[in-house]
Design a protein that fits this description.
single chain, about 450 residues, alpha+beta, Sulfite Oxidase, Chain A, domain 2, Immunoglobulin-like, 5-stranded antiparallel beta sheet, 10 helices, about 15% helix, Mopterin_OxRdtase_euk
Length: about 450
C-alpha cells in the first residue's frame, strides 16, 4: 500500500514491517529516507479501524470533562470537587505544561497472531506476523498534569521502601481510585464497528508517576506524522497499543470504562469456550462472555525471534559453527526493563544468554531480580518501557526441523512460560507470547 494512502472505513490502513528490518535500530523510524527523493519505506507498523485523519493543528481542540457516572465511585467527590470542563489548544499544551520525553514500545495486542493461528487453530482478526510492534521516543505533556490543570485533585501516594512495601503501595494507590477511568477518544474517526474510536484505562494508571502517561505531539524528535496521530495522541506506557488513541480530541474522567466497541467488544482474552464457529459467535452467550472478561491493559512479557524471520527458513552457520539469532523483547506492564533474554535450539535443554542493546549500549546482563548485592549495571532507571534488542551466536550442528525458543525476563521477575512453549489459544488471537519463536528451521 502506498505510504500516502489514507484507507477507509471499509478498508483501513494496516501494515507491518519485516521483523528483521525492525531490529536494525533501537528507535523505530516512522519511515526510512523520509527526506530523500526516493520513495520512503514505511517502518513503524500501522493499526487502524478507520481512515487516517489529517487534522489542522491550529484549529484542533482537546476537550477534557467529567461524566455523570462518577457519582457512585468512592472518593469521587474529593478527587473531583467540581465537574471538569476544559478545552485546550495545541498552543496551550506547549506553553502551560512541562515537556516530557519517554522511550516506549507500542505493541498491537494481535502481534504474533499468525503463529497462534498456524500452530493452535483459527482465530478472528488481522493476520499479523511479528512486526506489529515499534519502539520510539515520545514527547509531550503528562496526562496527570493536564487533568490536574482541568480541576482533578489527585490523592497523594504513600511513600514506601522495599519490594513488598512497593507492592502494598501500588495496591493502596489503586484502591483509592477504584471504579474511576479515563476515556480517550478520536471522535472524528468513523470506524468499522463504531461511530468513532475510543478506549480507556483506570484512572490510577493514568495518574501513576511511574507510568508517565503522555499526550504526545512528537515522535523521535519530530512532529507526529499523520499516520501516527498528528497533532496529538495518547501514549500509555506498558499498555497494549489499542489504548494509545491517535488524533486525540476527547478525554473524559468517568465512573466506567469507555463504552466504545474497541473497549467492550474487542481486545480481550476470551476463555476457550468462545470458539470460532459462526453459530456460537452470534449467540447471546458470547455477549455475556465479553461483559465478564476484563479488557486487556498491560503488555504481556514477550520475546520475538526476528532473524531468522520465518518458520522453515534455511540458516547457515558461520565460520565458527554458530548460527546468528536476533530479536526484540518487551517487558510486562511497568515491570521493565528486560534484564535477560535466553535462546535455545534444543527445546529448552540448553540455554544461551543473549547480549542486549539498550539505546546503543550493548551489554551482557549481570543484574537479576531480587539480588540486592549484585554489583552489575542497574537498569532500573533505563528504558523501563522500551523494548530490548537482543543478539546471540549459538554453536550448533547442521540439522532439520529445529525450533528456536526465546525466553525474556524483566526486572519485575516476569518470565515467559517454558511449560507451555507453543503458547495458548484464544478466539481473538491476542496476547500471544509463546517461547517457541521459530519452528521447522533448517541449519546448514
Amino acid at each position: 500500500m502506498n505510504p500516502d494512502e489514507d484507507g477507509s472505513v471499509g478498508k483501513p490502513v494496516n501494515r507491518e514491517t519485516d521483523p528483521g528490518k525492525l531490529v536494525q535500530s533501537f528507535l523505530t523510524p516512522s519511515q526510512s529516507n523520509p527526506k530523500s527523493e526516493d520513495k520512503p519505506q514505511l517502518v513503524a507498523y500501522d493499526r487502524n479501524h478507520g481512515p487516517i485523519q489529517h487534522l489542522d493543528a491550529s484549529t484542533h481542540r482537546l476537550t477534557i470533562k467529567s461524566d455523570s457516572s462518577l457519582s457512585s465511585a468512592p472518593n469521587s467527590k474529593y478527587i473531583l470537587p467540581q465537574p471538569l470542563s476544559t478545552v485546550l489548544t495545541l498552543s496551550d499544551l506547549s506553553t502551560k505544561f512541562d515537556r516530557v520525553s519517554i522511550t516506549c514500545a507500542l505493541q498491537c495486542a494481535g502481534n504474533r497472531r499468525h503463529e497462534m493461528q498456524e500452530r493452535l487453530g483459527e482465530v478472528s482478526g488481522l493476520d499479523w506476523g511479528d512486526g506489529a510492534a515499534m519502539n520510539a521516543e515520545w514527547t509531550g505533556v503528562r496526562v496527570r498534569d493536564v487533568l490536574v490543570h482541568a480541576g482533578l485533585r489527585p490523592l497523594t501516594p504513600r511513600q514506601t521502601d522495599g519490594d513488598n512495601e512497593d507492592m502494598e503501595h501500588d495496591e493502596e494507590f489503586e484502591s483509592q481510585y477504584e471504579g474511576l477511568h479515563v476515556q480517550f477518544a478520536c471522535t472524528t474517526q468513523p470506524t468499522q464497528d463504531d461511530d468513532y474510536y475510543g478506549s480507556s484505562v483506570p484512572l490510577f494508571l493514568a495518574l501513576d508517576p511511574e507510568r508517565e502517561c503522555l499526550l504526545a505531539t512528537h515522535m523521535n524528535g519530530e512532529a507526529l506524522p499523520a499516520r501516527h496521530g498528528f497533532p496529538v495522541r495518547a501514549i500509555i506506557p506498558g499498555v497494549i497499543g489499542a489504548r494509545s488513541v491517535k488524533w486525540l480530541d476527547s478525554i473524559v474522567v468517568a465512573g466506567e470504562e469507555s463504552t466504545n466497541h474497541y473497549q467492550r467488544r474487542d481486545y480481550k482474552i476470551l476463555p476457550t469456550e468462545a470458539d470460532n464457529s459462526t453459530e456460537k459467535a452470534n449467540e447471546g452467550g458470547r455477549d455475556e462472555l465479553w461483559d465478564h472478561v476484563p479488557a486487556m491493559i498491560d503488555n504481556p512479557i514477550n520475546s520475538v525471534v526476528a532473524v531468522p524471520g520465518r518458520d522453515r527458513d534455511v540458516v547457515s552457520r558461520d565460520g565458527n559453527g554458530c548460527v546468528h539469532v536476533k530479536g526484540y523483547a518487551i517487558p510486562k506492564g511497568k515491570d521493565g526493563p528486560v534484564v535477560k533474554v535466553e535462546i535455545s535450539l534444543d527445546k529448552g535443554h540448553t540455554w544461551y544468554e543473549a547480549s542486549i542493546s539498550d539505546g546503543g549500549d550493548e551489554y551482557y546482563n549481570t543484574r537479576h531480580p531480587g539480588n540486592s548485592n549484585d554489583t552489575g549495571k542497574d537498569k532500573a532507571g533505563r528504558a523501563k518501557f522500551a523494548w530490548a534488542l537482543w543478539d546471540v551466536h549459538i554453536p550448533c550442528e547442521p540439522g532439520d526441523d529445529v525450533s528456536i525458543w526465546s525466553k525474556a525476563t524483566d526486572r519485575g521477575g516476569n518470565t515467559m512460560s517454558v511449560e507451555q512453549a507453543e503458547g495458548s489459544w484464544n478466539l481473538r488471537g491476542v496476547g500471544f507470547n509463546a517461547v517457541e519463536g521459530r519452528r521447522g528451521i533448517k541449519i546448514v
